[in-house]
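User: Structure please.
Assistant: Input sequence and predicted structure:
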Amino acid sequence: MKKQTKKLTLAEIKHELAEVARIGQMFVDGDLCRQAWQPYAEKFMCGDDMDYNPATTVPLKKTLFRLERLGRIPCCTTLWRRRADFPDSGEALLFGSLSSPIGGNKPAARGYQPPKMTPEMKEVFLKGRSAWCMDPKSPAIRLQAGRGIKVLAKGLKKSTTVQLFVPVKDSMGEIAAALEVHTMAIVE
C-alpha cells in the first residue's frame, strides 16, 4: 500500500475517491456487469448457487484492481447490482481487493433474501446520481484500516468510512451497476 506522510482533509479524501470513481465510470464495462454471472445463476438464493462467467468476470475484476492502484490514496472498489427479481434490492456483484464496509456476504444456507438498497444505491439505481456515504459507527473501520485501507484525516472528530457510489452504464445508456469506491478516514 501507499505510504501516507501527511493528513488530508475530508474534502481532499473525497476529491481523490471521486477521481477514481470518475475514471471507473469510463472503464468499467456495464455490458460485462450484466453478464458477470452465468444465466442460470443470476437469481441465486444461496452462496452455493453463485457461478461467475469467467469471460466477463475476469476483465471486471482486473479493472477493479487497477482502479484501486490508480488512486493516490488507499481505496477499495465494489460493484453492486440491482436484481430484476428483487428490484428494491442492492446486491454485491463483485469485490475488488476487499469487501464493502456495508458488507455483501452471501450466506450458504437457503432462505437468502437480497438486501434492500441503501439510500445511496437508490440515488444511483433510481435517479442515476452519485451519492456519498460516511459511517463513523461501521465495524469495517478497524478491519479495513488494519489491512492498510486508511487515510490519516484532519478536521474530523471521529474515524469514519468514506464511500462514493456512482452509476455504471451499459452500451444502451442504462444503469447496469453501481461502482463503490471507499476508504477509511482515520483520526489519530
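Residues 83 and 98 are 22 Å apart (CA to CA).
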